[in-house]
Amino acid sequence: MSEIIHYDAELYSYKKPKEWEPIGENNEKSKDVSGALKQYLIEMLGATNLIVLCGLGTSMCVKDSTKSEKSLCPSMTELWKTAQEKVGDKFQEVLKKVHYESGDNIEELLSRCQMSEILLSDKAIKDFVETTEKAVVEKCRFLKSDTNLEMHETFLRRIARRSTKLERAKIFTTNYDTCFEQAARNTGFIFVDGFSHTLPQEFDSSYFDYDLVKRSEYKETPDYIPNVFHLYKLHGSVDWEQKNNNRVFRNPETSKPLLIYPRNTKFETSYKPPFIDLMGRFQSCLRKPSTSLLVIGCGFNDNHIAQPILSALRSNTEMKMMVVGSDLKKPDNPAIKIMTQLIQNGDPRICLLKTEFEKFVPWIPDIVATTEEEKYRARIQTSYGPF
To answer: Whose CB has fewer CB within 10 Å in the chain, the N or C terminal residue?
Structure first.
């Protein structure tokens, strides 16, 4: 009887453009593929400009240990069910008013409601949108102080721990939650997210041009502090609040966070302050030479995200790109289809890796040694608990 091999991933690259190559543990046939993946990742991490784009898939691994390892992060299907529960009997009434018949797609439903609200000025539709948006916020505030973020912490150690001679790693995320912020605090990493260091913290994109250095009385020039990364929340965050004068502040207790909610007007909204500043940074980063783009858990369903990437693939010959996701074999996604065609035509810059975030993280090579400060913090946390 032949041994059953459980494959954790499949790699699609220009080396074998006609097939997906499986990667499994303790499998001789996949060793070459594993080696190629590792080498590709080493080259990406060594790029001068390292960009990471994270979608919903990076938060789905955060589990509730008390409920059979159920994900704490809501999926789109779960948001649909939550809207049904919150609205109750009026849910079907709203569907009829907006003539919705497209399945359990909360983004499409909210899009129709937004258009109908403008045309009909219907209170029931307006109440439904407000109730659903509040439910989205509640569901995305799933983190607690003791939530296990081991995958995010390991990811930061391997992505954001770079030589200070290179540019800081830049993590762009469409998620509303604060997983990366909390993981950074747990590991002692410092993130620059565009907010001031004064209270109250106010957003200003010019802070992304600042850096952190350490002065010493024994040196004439300051040293760049290690373990610093940039964090860009492309769709807002559950702790962002916009005042009447359009200024944005950090407020973890806000009842109306500044978010780009699921609907087909994301493109237009992303070009309003402060999101236009973040999108501008994203687009300019993609144009830089010696650039690596690592996309994880992103479905490329948002045109304002997909189009700048496809444009950069056309114009930036020095950009390497790896896409990591669990549904990359779907032929109906235009962006994935274009990337697949480029690979088939022999483009060595792109590869697709079919797997989940939590399975991908252990494969990222740890190419920079752990600092003494990190070892110290690990000892303290083991003895005293989290900071």
So the answer is: N
Nearest partner of 328 among 350, 345, 304, 308, judged by Cα: 350
The answer to whether the beta carbons of residues 185 and 153 sit under 8 Å apart is: no
Provide the CB-side half-sphere exposure for 135 (13 A, CA): 22
Q: What is the pTM of this model?
A: 0.91
Read off the pLDDT of residues 336-363 as tens digits, 9 standing for 90 and up. 999 999 999 999 999 999 999 999 999 9
When mean pLDDT is compared over 22-36, 218-232, 352-366, the highest value belongs to: 352-366
Question: Residue 88: how many CB atoms within 10 A of its CB?
Answer: 9
pLDDT, tens only, 299-321? 898 999 999 999 999 999 999 99
End-to-end Cα, the chain, rounded Å: 52
Alpha carbons 265 and 128: distance in angstroms, whole number = 18
| Structural contact between residues 134 and 145, judged by C-beta atoms closer than 8 angstroms | no
How far is CA 110 from its chain centroid? 22
Residue type, 281: R
Size of the chain in residues:
387
Domains (ranges, CATH) in the chain?
7-65+147-382 (3.40.50.1220), 74-140 (no CATH)
- The C-alpha atoms of residue 90 and residue 341 are separated, in whole angstroms, by 46
Pairing of strands 213-214, 49-54: unpaired
- pLDDT band at 102, cuts 50/70/90? confident
- Looking up tokens 């955060």 gives 62
Write out the two tokens for 199. 């209270």
Please tell me the distance from the alpha carbon of residue 299 to that of residue 333, in angstroms, as a whole number. 8
CA distance 176 to 287: 26
Q: How far is CA 313 from the centre of its chain?
A: 20
Side-chain half-sphere CA neighbours of 379 within 13 A: 6
DSSP classification of residue 175: -
Residues 122/116, Cβ–Cβ less than 8 Å:
yes
